[in-house]
Design a protein that fits this description.
Elements lengths: L2 E4 L7 H9 L4 E4 L13 E6 L2 E6 L23 H13 L5 H8 L10 H15 L7 E2 L35 H4 L7 H8 L3 H5 L3
Parallel strand pairs: 1-2, 2-5
Antiparallel strand pairs: 3-4
Helix pairs in contact: 1-6
């Protein structure tokens, strides 16, 4: 069976979840053994703030070896990024239809201090799948493979500087009256605005 390989993202974008659902009948792996790539969704998420797109950067520890394997990347707490991220999310979505409904689910992720970025991202992703009521199992990769079946490798395709890998149709957003629709933000943008209906949107081809 062909395997789908996805990057382990921090609050992954909508297109990440659309891709997952489209390949839900296949084995799905999260990449754990790649060399950690900078300026990607592994430690960055985009939300809709009062001034437009707002990127949240999760700082990681910088070691002597620049080629740290993803599973060994440690989160840095030199700055209080958890408080800043949570305040930004609250400010952006406190007026959305479903933020209060999910607030208690996400709050602990900005209180507890995980050591490894991969563990943190996987726990967050598991929560989001649960809230979306998606009964899917994502397995961590066991080694690095350079090549996967054509059309199944999204490790470098889902990237902030590249177009979305899926067509993200407009949906209601909190500040869209000011800035228009912003496509392919973090999944929390869709979830906080549309709640249980989010899964229908993700399944629309």
């Amino acid at each position: 069976m062909d395997k789908l390989i996805l990057p382990a993202c921090y609050l992954a974008p909508v297109s990440w979840f659309m891709t997952l659902i489209q390949h839900s009948d296949q084995a799905v792996l999260l990449e754990c053994f790649e060399h950690f790539p900078k300026q990607t969704y592994r430690n960055r998420a985009s939300i809709f703030g009062a001034n437009g797109r707002l990127d949240l950067y999760l700082p990681v520890q910088k070691g002597k070896d620049k080629h740290t394997v993803m599973k060994d990347v440690r989160i840095s707490y030199e700055q209080d990024w958890q408080r800043l991220h949570w305040m930004s999310i609250q400010t952006a979505y406190r007026s959305s239809a479903y933020f209060e409904y999910y607030e208690d689910d996400f709050a602990p992720f900005y209180e507890k201090k995980d050591v490894f970025l991969l563990d943190y991202n996987m726990r967050l992703t598991a929560l989001i799948l649960k809230l979306l009521k998606l009964n899917l199992t994502l397995k961590p990769s066991e080694s690095y493979e350079a090549n996967y079946a054509p059309g199944m490798d999204y490790r470098s395709r889902i990237h902030p500087k590249k177009p979305p890998v899926q067509l993200v149709q407009p949906y209601r957003q909190v500040f869209s009256d000011r800035f228009g629709f912003l496509p392919d933000l973090s999944i929390v943008d869709l979830l906080f605005n549309h709640g249980p209906q989010s899964i229908r949107y993700l399944q629309t081809e």
